[in-house]
Design goal:
Helices cover about 80% and strands about 0% of the residues. It has about 80 residues and is mainly α.
Length: about 80
C-alpha cells in the first residue's frame, strides 16, 4: 500500500497528464464528474479545497492503477 502511495506522489507532471488524459478517454463520465462538476461545486465554497479534492482524486486513481492495473474502459464508477 505504501509503495502505491509513494508511486502516486513521485509521478512527474508529464506522466500525470497522460494518466488524466487516459482516464478522461476511458472514463468520460467519471472524469467529467470528478474533475469538472464536483471540483466546480467545491471551488464555489473554497478554491483551495477544490485543488485538494482534485489532488486526492488523482492520488486515488494512481494508487488504484498501481495496485490493480488500468481501469476497465467505459465502466461507470458511481
Amino acid at each position: 500500500m505504501f509503495e502505491a502511495i509513494h508511486y502516486a506522489e513521485s509521478i512527474d507532471e508529464e506522466t500525470g497528464a497522460k494518466i488524466i488524459q487516459q482516464f478522461q478517454l476511458e472514463q468520460t463520465a467519471g472524469a467529467e464528474t470528478l474533475f469538472s462538476i464536483f471540483s466546480a461545486f467545491i471551488s464555489e465554497q473554497n478554491q483551495e479545497m477544490a485543488y485538494l479534492f482534485m489532488d486526492l482524486c488523482f492520488d486515488v486513481l494512481c494508487v488504484f492503477q498501481y495496485a490493480f492495473g488500468p481501469l476497465p474502459a467505459y465502466i461507470v464508477l458511481f
